[in-house]
Design a protein that fits this description.
With 292 residues, the chain is of the alpha/beta class. The chain is 44% helix and 19% strand. The chain has a domain of 200 residues: 3-Layer(aba) Sandwich (Rossmann fold). Bound molecules: S-adenosylmethionine. S-adenosylmethionine binds next to helix 1 and strand 2.
Amino acid sequence: MDNSEVELKGASQDAIQYHYDKGNNFYKLWLDENMVYSSALWEEEDTLESAQIRKLDYHIQNAHAQNAKHMLDIGCGWGSLLERLTSHYNAESGVGLTLSQEQVNWVDNLQIPGIDTRLENWQDHQAEKKYDAIISIGAFEHFAKQDLSEADRIEGYRDFFRKCHEWLNDGCYLSLQTIGCGNMTRDQFSEFFATEIFPESDLPRLSEICAASEHLFEITSVRNDRLHYAKTLKQWLKRLRSHKAMVIDTYGLELYKRYEKYFQLAILSFEHFGTMDLYRIGFRRNKEPKVL
Ligand SMILES: C[S@@+](CC[C@H](N)C(=O)[O-])C[C@H]1O[C@@H](n2cnc3c(N)ncnc32)[C@H](O)[C@@H]1O
């Protein structure tokens, strides 16, 4: 099957752009200065900025990427990880994949040495040479649409792990961060999130990630940091509110209210109900997978 025939199990480019292409200036108003759009990793003394850097460093270590020469970032957002890898570690080259045109424009403007940012679905990616490490933060949530059967969802995720296995050098690591389905059944997932915030996207269960990666990767670490996401969201909410008049003026009342509700509901889900988890998972590439 060539790539044009690959069935899209996750969110389409249109669905991703609906969420991420609201204007970089909108995201700039409430994200930290490095534009990291995923749960931070908090220690007591942290600011949002330092907790986001802590998270990036955690994944770099988890992927054993401190000395990786050639890197892949799947779902690179506004380039924070690629920038960190080249400025503070020894990465010489890297590829960042995103489906957001605004993010590509932003990262291109940063002119990070050795970094190639592509408007490309991971399903279509062809690695020109093998990578020494792969990191994917906050993108896996988009890799399965709602209403897929469990078997189809696992098969879609397994395609992702197959590709990562193919692209990685022997014995190298993948570090993954994703929101997961916590203490709820699938039909309890918020209709508001599914339609108004993250269309064509669904949350994985930890058991599905394990099944999908089995034999291809050895799982080296798993953390559930759901309270860290609640704390991150509280910061985003505070920053959004501090720009209320400007957001309403520039983007309209409806968008302001939609994002306020998104953050409030997500805080409740992570902190009080435990219906959403936040997984950070390390994987080591297996040498000879028995099941492909
Ligand atoms: C929540 S953002 C996270 C960005 C960044 N990793 C961070 O932590 O700031 C999700 C990213 O995943 C990307 N993405 C979603 N689905 C994708 C796909 N199928 N292929 C490539 N990138 C994808 C989006 O374009 C976006 O850049």
